[in-house]
Amino acid sequence: MQVKICGITNIEDALCATENGAAAVGFIFYPPSPRYIDPQRAGEIIDRLPQHLVKVGVFVNSKEQEVHRIYDDCRLDMIQFHGDESPEFCRQFTGDRVIKALELKNEEDLKKGDLYDVAAILVDSRHAGLYGGTGKTSNWMLARHISQPLILSGGLKEENIHDALRVVNPAALDINSGVESSPGKKDHAKIARIMQIINMAGADSAASAIFTRRKDR
């Protein structure tokens, strides 16, 4: 079971994630987010991380040129679109490098996922105008019916992670606020505990990897 620890703002948290078995870390390039990180600072952190750790940039309604620039400057492996990006917009980028986040409220939202030619659909929860990182759980009952590879996100923490795995059986997990002491600052003990729970749950590790390094690095 691959896990991404998202909302990384410092080297200590990123190293803790990889030391505890995370496959990927996420950097949020959306200024209104309390977990926003300046691209230059993100690049400095990425330079100090192990090569095998997949680095994901999270963008919300950014311009195409900005995404390409940060993707190259920060030497990112994958792009996560977490806003209102259309299928047409996402097609401007290499599909197996792209993750598209969606909020599922009804059956119609499920059909939206089929329109995106991406590596995976990430299901998250929005609240009070925030594009994720809300601490609210996503709609698990709908998420389990996503036809594409599924990354489950939204309010995942040690108290509910076992149930999330049992009910949804996602291909991967994206964990953010559930392992924090405050927005943008991870609690290393929480990371260790939740990763231990995931490993002990015996989640399927034979599934194809979603978080993968870009081939031109």
Relevant terms:
217 residues; alpha/beta; TIM Barrel; eight-stranded parallel β-barrel; two-stranded antiparallel ribbon
How do the helices and strands line up, and which of them pair or pack?
Elements: E1 2-5, H1 11-19, E2 24-28, H2 39-46, E3 54-59, H3 64-73, E4 78-81, H4 87-90, E5 98-103, H5 107-113, E6 120-124, H6 140-143, E7 150-152, H7 161-168, E8 172-175, E9 180-182, E10 185-186, H8 188-200
Parallel strand pairs: 1-2, 1-8, 2-3, 3-4, 4-5, 5-6, 6-7, 7-8
Antiparallel strand pairs: 9-10
Instruction: Tell me the CATH topology.
Output: TIM Barrel
The CATH class turns out to be Alpha Beta
Task: State the total count of DSSP E strands.
Answer: 10
CATH architecture: Alpha-Beta Barrel
Overall number of structural domains: 1
CATH superfamily: Aldolase class I
Amino- and carboxy-terminal Cα gap: 24 Å
**Proportion of helical residues:** 25-40%
Number of helices: 8
SSE ordering = EHEHEHEHEHEHEHEEEH
- Percentage of β-strand residues: 15-25%
Structure commentary:
With 217 residues, the protein is an alpha/beta fold. It has a single domain (2-200), classed as Aldolase class I (TIM Barrel), CATH 3.20.20.70. It has eight helices and ten strands. An eight-stranded parallel barrel has the order 1-2-3-4-5-6-7-8. A two-stranded antiparallel ribbon has the order 9-10. Helix 4 (87-90) links the parallel strand 4 and strand 5. The longest helix is centred in the C-terminal third of the chain and has 13 residues, at 188-200. 45% of the residues are buried.
